[in-house]
Every structure is written in structure tokens, then in C-alpha cells.
Amino acid sequence: MRIDRFAYLVTLALTLPTVGQNISSSTLTLVVARLAESATHSWELGTRAQALTELNAPLYSVLSPSASLPPPVSPPQPSGAFLEANLTDVLQIAKQTVVNMGIVGNSTFVADPTPKPLVGNDGSSGDPASLGAAVLLANWTFSALGSTTNGAGNGSVSQAEYAAAAEAQLRYLLEVVPRTSDGAISHRANQAQLWCVKFPSQFKINPS
């Protein structure tokens, strides 16, 4: 099954740095490349962004035990160079997500974000939220990168637009998504459903 293959690739990408020195850099590069090829749905893109952040820049990963919250706006190394080298793909995912929302250039929405998922018509309420950490990271590191650092994924999306996208997703989860009788947020957007899946749920509605 597709989901099993993708889950395997993510798990492998996350565990390679810790399993010892017998994994070659070429193998790791291949895993990351296959991960990029496989990620097309919202939860896959969000999971890929989380995996790459934890792999390449654990300082900024909400899943890293050594990370501080909030993370530093500027990394210890020269800011632009570090972010370009380690978070380019993550920030590009964030940029494309916000562009696809259709809010870029909408000053009314940016000034007062209304509830809106990061990915529309998804069917799931939890899957689009998996992209939230990447969008927040793009907003948080924007000043360190500068608005002209296209390679790192900011490009035509402003810092305020990243913030508005994240707020809109949060409001959608809290104000629109169905809940169970005891207040649990539904995994599905059209009716209250709680899912238990074998793939790590922290990649979806995560601690960020």
C-alpha cells in the first residue's frame, strides 16, 4: 500500500542519523529523494516537512528533545546560510501551501484571518494541520532570511501572510471542525470521527 511505503520512508529518514555509522550519505540522499517523490497529499507533505526539519535542523523541530520553544529566530551559525542549507525544502513546502490557499495579496484576510484550512477540500481536518509547523517556521525565520531569499522559500509570500495562514488554520480547528461530546477534535471535516492509526499522529495536529 502507498501509505505503508510512505510511512516506511519517513521512519527511515528519521532514524538514519541515530542507528549508527553504517549508513552512507548516498543512502540517506536516496531516502530523502524518494520521500520527495512520494509526498503529494497534505498529510504526506506535512510529514515530509516535519521529517526534514528533524533530520536537518533539529534545533527547529517540535519533536526534538533538545529543541527550545520557541526556537531561535536566528540559528547559531550565519542565519541565511544555515536556513538555506538546512530548511530550503521545508520552507518551500510552506510557501507553496500559502500560495495555494489564495490569500497572498489579500490584505483584508491578512488583517483579520477567518477560519480556513491550509489545504481546502481535503476531507480531513487533521491532515492539512500537519503543514502548520512548516508555515509557522517560515514566519518565525522570515526576518533572518529576508524577503528576497527565494531559495529558502519565502519569495512572494510575506511574513504577515504566513502568520495569517497559520492563524486561519488554528481558528478552523478550534471554531469549525466537529468535536465529540467530550470536546475532542474530529479527524474528519464533515463529521465527528476519532481515528487511531499506526502512523505517528504527532505529524498531524502537532504540539506547534
Brief account:
With 208 residues, the protein is mainly α. The chain has helices at 2-15, 25-38, 42-56, 79-101, 107-111, 126-129, 132-140, 142-145, 159-176. 38% of the residues are buried.
Please give a handful of descriptors for the protein shown:
single chain, mainly alpha
Description:
This protein is mostly helical and 208 residues long. The protein has one domain. The protein contains 9 helices and no strands. Helix 1 runs parallel beside helix 3 and helix 2 runs antiparallel to helix 3. The longest helix is centred in the middle third of the chain and has 23 residues. The radius of gyration is 17 Å and the shape is globular. The two termini are 30 Å apart.
* Helical content band: 40-55%
Distance between the termini: 30 Å
Number of domains: 1
Order of helices and strands: HHHHHHHHH
The shape, in one word, is globular
Q: Uncertain runs with pLDDT below 50, 5 residues or more?
A: 148-154
Oligomeric status: single chain
Mean pLDDT: 80
Strands, total number: 0
Largest sheet: none
Task: Annotate the secondary structure layout.
Elements: H1 2-15, H2 25-38, H3 42-56, H4 79-101, H5 107-111, H6 126-129, H7 132-140, H8 142-145, H9 159-176
Helix pairs in contact: 1-2, 1-3, 2-3, 3-4, 4-7, 7-9
